[in-house]
Specification:
A hairpin with a 2-residue loop joins β6 and β7 (about 310). It contains 15 helices and ten strands. About 50% of the residues lie in helices and about 10% in strands.
Length: about 400
């Protein structure tokens, strides 16, 4: 994307020199260009929102939709000709179900009450994984030994999916979320393979239903008595499996890294476990990587925001992470205060498309943090913070590994 002088707009996502620090460019954009033209890896133009007020408004404005991202004039994210996640067959199948209808049918299984009932099982599994870390000995990679396998176990249990297939899920997830590496043929093959896998699983559950979410959705119906379509069930299984392990795994590792980066944070939590809940919320706000690429919207009309104008047909990036450092909305936004309250962060979005699984993610984060504090009160980073590395080129930006000792 170029301006009137032919100057190319900055590439997005914007890189940061340190793994746990935000890009310095965010502060300049919030001050001088809060509705900023940017260029995706595909070369397509978009605009980036960095102010809290604008991001929240965009996420809740019906004139800016997620469904519009499937339009042919919406910006493509990925380089080359690879099909993006928002225009994939999975996304199209979910759109065909009708967002409000789909959300009502699935959302009943993701209530805070249901997630609280699952918390003891999460803690039990976290304990077993910590046993494995201890048996392995220090240093241990918290990503591979805890942060990734725990969410996989939880979401596989909820959906009734064999956990033994987790390496396949990881490969498909990496393909869908990577912006630069895979060709169109490779991406389409991954979509076909994942859909075929989930379609076979749905067929087997029809023959022998279990006590899991997919089995219950087969028997469920909306308020008009219509069941979810076959394509909708397959896409739902795909979407929940992807979202239920990839993002939460990233949150667990980043949360632990931030809390260990300054020893006083971990020691304060160890002394007062009642701070676990607000600490989780604060890390969700503070982490510059947790919301990854940001949430995308398509503008169906011209829209005036406090920071500027968004024209019809524009693809908009709502950077929640940048908004969380907005000094207009937060006191000392660059300080991680584990006792911060209130904390109206936007890590899970806002409005009708806010993350359906946020009660699950919150419960998992609280469970794993409680287990780590109880089992490994002396936990510490085994490398300098500056040596940590993120997975670049992904829609999410998790840590590659998190070496820890105790």
């Amino acid at each position: 994307m170029s301006d009137a002088r032919g100057t190319r707009s900055p590439d997005y996502p914007i890189s940061a020199p340190e793994p746990l620090e935000p890009p310095a460019e965010w502060a300049r954009l919030r001050q001088r260009c809060p509705v900023a033209p940017v260029t995706f890896p595909s070369g397509d133009p978009a605009v980036l929102l960095t102010r809290y007020e604008d991001v929240k408004a965009a996420l809740t404005d019906p004139r800016l939709s997620r469904e519009g991202l499937a339009r042919p004039d919406a910006a493509r994210i990925t380089a080359g000709e690879a099909e993006g996640i928002f225009s994939s067959p999975m996304a199209k199948a979910l759109n065909d179900e009708g967002h409000g209808r789909w959300r009502r049918m699935v959302g009943r299984w993701f209530t805070a009450k249901r997630m609280a009932a699952l918390k003891p099982r999460m803690e039990e599994m976290a304990d077993l994984l910590v046993d494995g870390m201890v048996a392995h000995g220090a240093p241990a990679d918290l990503v591979g030994m805890l942060a990734f396998p725990l969410p996989v176990y939880v979401i596989c249990t909820m959906l009734g999916v064999p956990e033994s297939d987790r390496d396949r899920f990881k490969a498909w997830s990496d393909t869908f979320l990577n912006m630069t590496t895979y060709t169109r043929e490779e991406t389409e093959a991954a979509h076909r393979d994942f859909a075929a896998y989930m379609s076979d699983l749905v067929a087997r559950k029809r023959e022998a239903p279990g006590d899991d979410l997919l089995s219950r959705l087969m028997d469920g119906a909306d308020t008009e008595g219509r069941p979810m379509s076959e394509a909708g069930l397959v896409a739902t299984g795909q979407a929940l499996l992807l979202a239920g392990h990839e993002t939460t795994a990233g949150f667990i590792s980043m949360m632990t890294a931030h809390l260990l980066a300054e020893r006083g944070r971990w020691e304060r939590l160890s002394a007062d476990p009642s701070l676990i809940r607000p600490a989780v919320e604060e890390v969700l706000r503070y982490d510059p990587n947790g919301s990854g690429f940001g949430m995308l919207r398509y503008a169906h009309e011209d829209i005036e925001l406090s920071g500027g104008r968004v024209e019809r047909g524009t693809t908009v990036v709502c950077s929640m992470a940048a908004a969380h450092r907005d000094e207009r909305a937060w006191d000392d936004p660059d300080v991680l205060d584990i006792g911060r309250s209130p904390n109206p962060h936007l890590a899970f979005g806002a409005g009708p498309h806010s993350c359906l699984g946020q009660p699950l993610a919150r419960t998992e984060l609280q469970a794993v943090l409680g287990v780590l504090l109880r089992r490994l009160p002396g936990l510490r980073l085994a490398v300098d913070v500056g040596e940590l590395r993120r997975q670049e080129g992904m829609l999410t930006t998790p840590l590659r590994e998190l070496p820890v000792a105790w």
